[in-house]
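[step 3/7] fold_predict: job queued, chain A
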Amino acid sequence: MKKQSEFVYDLRSMGLLGHPGEWERVNTTLSAPADLKIEVIGVAEGSPLTLELMFESVSEGIYVSGTVSATARGEDVRTLDEIELPIDVDIQEMYVYEQADGDEDSYLIDRDQLDLEPAIRDAVVMALPFSPSTDRSEEFSFTLGEDLEVDDSESDSPFASLKSLLDEKKES
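[step 4/7] structure written:
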């Protein structure tokens, strides 16, 4: 028999199933599931994932809101150095008892159980930066070797060097 995921909550034991107006807080730390990542950064499998959620029973199902916090690790896209970035994601998802025709966005309550893993995966992966960097400035600059000195004695015209060539040709 397959072990039940720690992200699955039994609504009947929580007293929320079919009791609109009831609510329960869930504050826990779980191990991150696999594949919470994109190309250059992600939350490692098994690392701590902190959930601070509110489960609210409504007539259509269960409304889950709150935050998920973790630490993403990866590479700085500019320097390729290892970086760690804190990730705090807001979750606001509706889990329904029955999906309406054409509703593919809602999560379904399956046999009185609510599985948070798909919603958490969607939220965390979407919150990961596509170009993670420790440098928060908008302007990117780098130097190789020494800075070049600019000679300001010349004219600011881009044609100044061409003019000097023409002057040399006339003299000869």
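[step 5/7] annotate
The longest helix spans residues 160-171.
The chain has a mean pLDDT of 82.
exit 0
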